[in-house]
Amino acid sequence: MKIEAAVLRGEETPFSIEDLELADPTPHEVLVRIVGAGHCHTDVLPRAAAGFGTPPIVLGHEGAGIVEAVGSAVQTVAVGDHVVLSFDSCGTCANCLDAHPAYCDTFLARNLVGNALDGSTPLTDTAGKPVAGRWFGQSSFATHAVVDARNAVVVDKELPLELLGPLGRGIQTGAGAVLEVLQVRPGEGIVIVGAGAVGLSAVMAAKVAGAGPIIAVDLNSDRLELARELGATDTIVPGVGDLTEQIRAIAPAGVRYGLDTTGLPTVIAATLDALALRSTLGLVGVQQGDLIIAPLALTAGRTITGILEGDANPHTFIPTLIALWQAGQFPFDRLVTTFPLSEINAAEKRASAGEIVKPVLLPGT
Fold this sequence. Notes:
Blueprint: E1 2-8, E2 16-22, E3 29-38, E4 57-58, E5 63-70, E6 82-85, H1 94-97, H2 107-111, E7 123-124, E8 130-131, E9 144-148, E10 152-155, H3 161-164, H4 170-181, E11 190-193, H5 197-209, E12 214-217, H6 221-230, E13 234-236, H7 243-250, E14 255-260, H8 265-273, E15 275-284, E16 303-307, H9 314-326, E17 336-340, H10 344-352, E18 358-362
Parallel strand pairs: 11-12, 11-14, 12-13, 14-15, 15-16, 17-18
Antiparallel strand pairs: 1-2, 1-4, 2-7, 3-5, 3-9, 3-18, 5-6, 6-10, 7-8
Keywords: Metal-binding, NAD, Oxidoreductase, Zinc
Domain Alcohol dehydrogenase-like N-terminal: 27-154
Family: Belongs to the zinc-containing alcohol dehydrogenase family.
């Protein structure tokens, strides 16, 4: 079928809105009409020539929409269902079977290449040439996407579907890091470095968990103000002093949990030094260089753990986040700014400049 999509054709070129041909779903896939798709920092990776997603490619991995067709073997999703799309996983490896699909044996190949495992893509352009169309198993910067039914989470049709896409990745990652991985306990302190969509989602989750203090760190004063509104008890602007000392000024004995969303080695090391005895530091995102750890940094029972996708099972965690939002405890909608799909370049520019937190693109508007 013919669809409209935002195509990235070069590392330094803007997205172009193009007509593409989308293949029919295979027996285990579903066709989804995209209602809204969040733009995430990960969607910038193909511009970095780091081996993630080679142009031409349709990006987008925070889609939500309505199922329009299902493959012959699909039993979990029906035509007309409203769904939130999450990352791709095999469903059969040990980690998938243990309800940890973010650590699927084939996670990187399924999500960060842009094509199917066999190298195929469901998309071709008007010249008949292939366009990568399986970014995180969905490539949702388009009017329609074909995805594996396993990665579509059915949600209530009364919900504002256009807002829900980011629950499938960025928001899930931050909240899952706090609630699923760190398992933050009431009354325990946490420092969250980086107040983007992932970090602010972590702030909201920390408030849900009853943490205290909740310390948010960012260079952007507007983001820090929003962090306070969402649950941070304290905020720090790094660079105006030693970060470790700034954190210790708020919590002299250190905090029990830390979460870094920046990937900056010096920031990670400073945060680690500010943690209490028997503490855990979670790392989200791609680390930007070698991490040098002080000789005694881990001798006091400190642990460093990497985190993918919040180690969440989307089929159980996304409904949990929706229920918290409905109860007024997780106002993720405050992070969202919507744009027509045709304004994707403006949305990306404003997000990169830190002017907005979470752009959501609306195909067909």
